C-alpha cells in the first residue's frame, strides 16, 4: 500500500482515516530510546541479562 501524507487541514469531519501500520520494535530503536531517556537498565538493553532473570527477551518499555 502506498503511503500518503495526511495533514490536519485536509481531514474533514466524518472522513475515514487510513489504518496506522507500524513495524515491530527492533534492537536499534530500543538502544536509541535508552540513549534519549538515559535509562540503560540492563533488563531493557541486555538480552543475556534479561534471560538470566527468566525473561525470554529484553523487556520493551511501556512508553512505546
Account of the 3D structure:
It is a single chain. By secondary structure, the protein is mainly α. It has a domain of 40 residues. The chain is 33% helix and 0% strand. It has 3 helices and no strands. The two termini are 24 Å apart.
Record keyword descriptors for this entry.
0% strand, mainly alpha, elongated, 64 residues
Identify low-pLDDT runs.
Answer: none
- Terminal Cα separation, in Å? 24 Å
Secondary structure tally, helices? 3
Major beta-sheet overview: none
Task: Set down the secondary structure blueprint.
Elements (H helix, E strand, L loop, with lengths): L26 H11 L4 H4 L1 H6 L12
Quick structural summary:
The chain has 64 residues and is an all-alpha fold. Helices cover 33% and strands 0% of the residues. The chain is elongated, with a radius of gyration of 18 Å.
Amino acid at each position: 500500500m502506498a503511503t500518503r501524507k495526511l495533514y490536519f487541514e485536509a481531514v474533514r469531519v466524518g472522513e475515514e482515516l487510513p489504518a496506522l501500520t507500524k513495524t515491530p520494535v527492533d534492537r536499534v530503536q530500543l538502544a536509541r530510546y535508552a540513549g534519549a531517556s538515559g535509562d540503560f537498565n540492563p533488563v531493557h538493553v541486555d538480552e543475556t541479562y534479561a534471560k538470566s532473570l527468566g525473561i525470554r527477551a529484553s523487556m520493551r518499555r511501556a512508553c512505546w
